[in-house]
Amino acid sequence: MFVMDAQLAQWEAALPSLQDGARLHLMVRLAWHLRQRDVTRARSLAHAAGELLALLPEPERSRAEARLMLIEGEAKWLFGEHDAARALADQACIEFDQQGDAIGSADARWLRAWLEIDRGNAAVGEHELASAGGYVRQSGDPLRIEVFDAGAAVFACYVDLGAATEQWAVRFDARASGAHLAVNGWIRDYQGSSAFQGGDFGAAVGPLTQAYEAARATGQLRRAINLASNIGNALINLNAQEAALEWMQRGLELARTTHWPISVGLALMQTAQTLRQLGQRAAALALLDEALVTLAPLPQERAYAIALEYHGDLALDGGDYERALESFHKLEERGVALGQLDFQSGARRGQAHALSSLNRPQAALAKADAALALAREHDDTYNQIAALTVLALIHTRHALPAPDPMFGPNAALHFLRQAMAVAATIDGYSIPADLLDAVASEYAGVGEHARAYEVALQASAAREAAHLQQAANRAAALRVQHQGEAARNEAAHQRGIAAADALRAEVQRQTSATLEHLVAIGQEITTHLEASAVYRALARHVHGLLDGAHLSIFVVEADGDSLSCAYSIDDGRPASAARLSLTGQGGEAARCVRERREILIERVLAERVLTESDGAQGEQAPVLSELFAPLLIGERVLGAMTVQSQAAHAYGERERLIFRSLCSYGAIALDNANAYRQVAATLTTLSATQAQLVEKNLALEKAYQALEELSLTDQLTGLRNRRFFLQHVEGDVGMALRHHDDPLRSTANDEHCGPGRDMVFFMVDLDHFKDVNDVHGHAAGDAVLVQMQERLREVFRESDYLIRWGGEEFLVLARATHRDDAKVVAERIRQAVAKRTFVLADGTELAKTCSIGFACFPFVPEEPRLLSWSEVVELADQALYLVKRSGRDGWAGIYGTPESQFNELFPRLVTQLAQAVAGGEAKVVTNLAHLEMPGAREWRVTEIAATTPHTPHLKFA
């Protein structure tokens, strides 16, 4: 059902050599597996295969024709032609059923299932998936059985998570895996979707990422686009909007390459929603406008309705109420046409919002009443709450007649009380703080202050719970991003190694192929018993393998004192022969024979010389490269051969190897009286080739070492990167733990008699760095980052690790350091940034500050293994976050204490830091006068000096 790219490449390579039925079968197979990788190529192959169907006997012809229908049906589905796609899938299904082709019947129903799910017909889609599963079990295809079951499990997660877990959790638990990458991808998709629907977004990202990679590798591009969006949504729920945007854009870029309107439109919408959450409304609006244009030809699709809803919400956010009203009006029309109640209800509420903001209260009230009536008619509790909230808002904004009957002191409370009553009927539903705030405000407005205070406390508790959840999500997102970064770095490293190995293998392959070719040539040359035939064979192969306008072969005369030109050809024409002296000058050919070595001459373009036949050719020609080699049989020299070219640098290492080999074979052929020496000459040539291979392997090894060093360094700043840090930090942690475990070392360190035995992790972040990029451009931002690393190097030792952690954030590991010195170092960092301006390329000077958070490892010296180094890094990041929210340009550190309670210490420090400090389990030092912390309204420091850190005391207002 799914194959890897390498298999497709092999089929593509084999296709031209096949004929008739074998070619037709391979064309159908290629078209099937290219159906999403390259729709145009798949359709072209399918069309060509259709013209050859008459070559097949029945029932093969009918099965192949049905498979071609399925390929075209999937193409129409991808391009949003759902009716035509369904018709083709139905035709294929009938044909497969008639032929008893269980695999074809399963595949046709699989396509019909996802078609109906796209249309919003979940019940029909679920039925088709179950039917496909039944047929695939009849076929006995193990890969399809696993894929179809995992696909049904994924869909079930979004319909009823409890039922899906009961049915599939044991089958596809965390240890489950398949023999094929496609199977693994679907299993990981189920695991990630189950975690996502269960609210464990941190656990969802990893499996969904694996599913995405598997989908890309097996040609499931539409699914890969959807998975990229799902990963982005999981990261949004973890408050990691920047990382989410990267995934949304990755899905959008992939979708744009396909030109599939629904995939492109949905990717545009998801990216726009992420930009909206990041406050980039203009960019979000541009993407939503593009989505509406892309989906306009497909108004019957749910995707078009979703785009209208997103567009209306964004217009409301931006205060463009007329545009919002228009979008929600179109959405209501589409909701009615599609029979989708969620669209109708949302459209009516959106129109009510817009009409109220346009000061048209009666029309707004009518739309809100209609939304409430629709929700009540279908027992839709969530839409009831939303409609009641809108009605309360309208009555708050406008003087309207009170509802009859009215339960409560005013109309707003009448509707808000109903909203809270409906919310109380939903199991596990937490009433939002905004709704509670609205109720409290209304109670206060009518003078019921006790009730107002009670509800306000509930709102505060809800907000605090949401804040704690956000903090936990932020920690989870940080872990996920760290794990993802490490995985990507490792993958890049492995790809680099694979590329180096592939290059080495390719060089070896080419060398082996050249040697095999030369051996074949040598066998041909040595079969000739006449010298003239040997000369012609040598000339033919020299001109076939090398660039050369001139070739001459010289042989030593019987007297041993002279050379005669036995064969010479210039630009394809025979050249005149010549006789050269070996005792006098004789030219380069004579020197080659006398010295019995290869001679390479390379000339500059301005020189014009005689072609080196040393008198054999008298015409002048622009010869720039000349190569001479002796014809040797052991210690005896039979003559010399030369090839010459008008091209500069024509004879590199490979060409010289070929020429030497040809000379060896030529010498063997010319000295056919001594067969043993022929073998010796061949072995000598092969030994030289082996030496060349050794040299190339050495060069490749050096290239690999350079690649390894490059993979450990940040290219902009020259600092080390995360991969370097992850490779080395465990060794330093081990050393620190051994120091703490050794009582002799511990005593010496306590008395300051030796180097520190702690590791201090500093998280350093440039304040308002985004302003530099926005105002001065990214080149200016790069310049500031480069100068930042210079200042960090001034503060820290060469033995410390300075890491570019991401963007404007740096991680520094100060090794063998006393934990009490950390605050002094932090102040040095702060002053190094704050007291000197950053100078841009145009001379502009920028004053910048930074925020620093730090924590020490071991966190609690008495229990050095209580927290891991990665948890200490997260505490340093937590300290940085405290400084950021308290005004920046400062530092803060979190220390453990002997009173720390070991059980679940790290989660408490992340989510309940203020309580942990108040309980004596941790202490915080800072140079800031006021430090804001979760769980406390204000964190104050008294008697603060300019550069002296203090341990603040928690005070509640």
Q: Which range best describes the helical content: under 10%, 10-25%, 25-40%, 40-55%, 55-70% or over 70%?
A: 55-70%
Radius of gyration: 39 Å
Overall mean pLDDT stands at 86
Give the percentage of residues in beta strands.
Answer: 5-15%
Distance between the termini: 66 Å
pLDDT under 50 segments (min length 5)?
607-618, 747-755, 937-957
Give a count of the beta strands, DSSP E runs of length 2 or more. Answer: 19
Total helical elements: 35
Give the overall shape: globular
Structural class: alpha+beta
Q: Give a quick account of the main beta sheet: strands, pairing sense, barrel closure.
A: 7 strands, antiparallel
Task: Please summarize what this structure is.
This protein is of the alpha+beta class and 957 residues long. It has 35 helices and 19 strands.
Topology overview:
Blueprint: H1 5-14, H2 20-33, H3 39-50, H4 60-78, H5 82-99, H6 102-119, H7 122-139, H8 142-159, H9 161-168, H10 181-197, H11 201-217, H12 221-237, H13 241-258, H14 261-277, H15 281-295, H16 302-317, H17 321-338, H18 341-357, H19 361-377, H20 381-397, H21 411-424, H22 433-445, H23 449-526, H24 531-545, E1 550-556, E2 562-570, E3 573-574, E4 579-581, H25 587-595, E5 599-602, E6 609-610, E7 620-621, E8 625-633, E9 636-645, H26 653-670, H27 675-710, H28 722-741, H29 743-750, E10 758-766, H30 769-776, H31 778-795, E11 801-806, E12 809-817, H32 822-834, E13 838-839, E14 845-846, E15 850-857, H33 869-885, E16 890-896, H34 905-911, H35 913-918, E17 922-926, E18 938-940, E19 953-955
Parallel strand pairs: 15-16
Antiparallel strand pairs: 1-2, 1-9, 2-3, 2-4, 5-8, 6-7, 8-9, 10-12, 10-15, 11-12, 13-14, 16-17, 18-19
Helix pairs in contact: 2-3, 2-4, 3-4, 4-5, 4-6, 5-6, 6-7, 7-8, 8-9, 8-10, 10-11, 11-12, 11-23, 12-13, 12-14, 13-14, 14-15, 14-16, 15-16, 16-17, 16-18, 17-18, 18-19, 18-20, 19-20, 20-21, 21-22, 22-23, 23-24, 23-26, 23-27, 24-26, 26-27, 30-31, 31-32
